[in-house]
Amino acid sequence: MFKNVHIVGVGAYHPKTKVDNQYYINHFKSYKAEKHAEALMDKLGRETRTLAEEGETSITMAVEASRRALSNSGLSAGDIDMIISVSDTPEYLSPCCALLIKNQLQAENAQGVFDMNANCIGMIIAMDTAARYLKTDNKYKRILIVGSLLISPQARMDDMVAYACTGDGAAAVILERREEAVERGILGSRMFTDDSYYWSITMPACGMSKISDEAAGPEDRKMLWKPFDFGFLSEKWTELITNLLAEHDYKPENVAHYLMSQFSKADLELTMTSLGTDMKDSIYIGNRYGYTGCTSPIMALDDKLKMEKFSDGEIVVFCSVASGYSMAALLYKW
Q1: Beta-carbon neighbour count of residue 258 at 10 Å?
Q2: Domains in the chain, CATH or no CATH each
Q3: What is the pLDDT of residue 33?
Q4: How much is the average pLDDT of 249-253?
Q5: Does the pLDDT value for residue 214 go beyond 90?
Q6: What tens digit of pLDDT does each residue of 153-162 get?
Q7: Could you tell me if 322 and 334 are in contact, meaning their C-beta atoms sit under 8 angstroms apart?
Q8: Residue 236 and residue 240: Cα distance in Å, rounded?
Q9: DSSP, residue by residue, 49-76
Q10: CA-closest candidate to residue 293, choices 117, 174, 144, 159
Q11: How far apart are the C-alpha atoms of 312 and 334, rounded to whole Å?
């Protein structure tokens, strides 16, 4: 018998405020960079972004996404044994946000609660971590992983990527252990890191040690994105995915769907071509919500499931990239 870890519930929350490309084109006129901004938004595939409204936080959005995942799974908060909160814009460093989410959900049986931060690969890493708990410790049967990004207040207004191309939102997934005769669910994962880009994206720009320093201005406390060539994405994603598949005796042609980072449509298209397929096998939602960090592959899954369900036995790959940079891929069999 196999201890399989299944996705049994998915939910996403998108704020109501939507902003289109023209707003940002007009904004960057004051920097005499509107043409550059327009070209970047076209390459990344942006049309609209969803931005948090006043009073919304990474926790309020996470709670709403969690409630939707619970509703879609037919479970109650009391069925959850552990909560993992993932965000690089947590509302608080202490107490952990997972504890606050447990409180608001009234998940009285969730005795294991903790936060994780692996930037934009955070939810993939959390799913892998949760699967290892479920497969090795019988105390846990169901784990809620919830990711949230509130980036709009943290973006410098002169930053074309963070300010013009990202969005706010949250996504949640519920994993459940089942003992079955055939291996299914989360099959494995693989990571890759090239730390030579460690300098490229920092938040806060001044570092936490100086965030209370009066010499640090408001912009110093926000994200600092230093321009760099991210043309490596397609090549490294293809290599990572191909190696992960090979570990489990699969090839790219065996994959029914790729749930990828929603950062760059152009690089996603190149990756699909490199893998011998095209965009019919990978949903793109970055045009509707903007780039939403760690939540983006799960938001893609949420939108995909609203259109059609996967068939038993179909193989899917989750894959994303995080600042610095690191990559993660997760193999799943329905």
Answers
A1: 24
A2: 2-180 (3.40.47.10), 185-333 (3.40.47.10)
A3: 84
A4: 96
A5: no
A6: 999 999 989 9
A7: no
A8: 6
A9: EEEPPTT--HHHHHHHHHHHHHHHHT--
A10: 117
A11: 5
Length of the chain: 334
Per-residue pLDDT of 21-75, as tens digits, reads 999 999 999 999 889 989 988 999 999 999 999 999 999 999 999 999 999 999 9
Query: Which residues, 6 or more positions from 10, have their beta carbon under 8 angstroms from its beta carbon?
Result: 69, 72, 171, 172, 173, 174, 298, 301, 302, 305
Structure tokens belonging to residue 298: 């799960």
Contact yes or no for 82/113 (Cβ under 8 A): yes
140 burial type by CB count under 10 A (0-12 exposed, 13-18 middle, 19+ buried): buried
Q: Check if the beta carbon of residue 191 is closer than 8 Å to that of residue 327.
A: yes
What torsion do the CA atoms of 257, 260, 266, 267 make, to the nearest 10 degrees?
A: -110
Q: 92 preceded by cis ω (within 30°)? A: no
- Please choose, from the candidates 283, 215, 209, 282, the residue with its C-alpha nearest in 3D space to the C-alpha of residue 252: 282
pLDDT-derived band at 227 (thresholds 50, 70, 90) equals confident
As a whole number, mean pLDDT of residues 100-121 equals 97
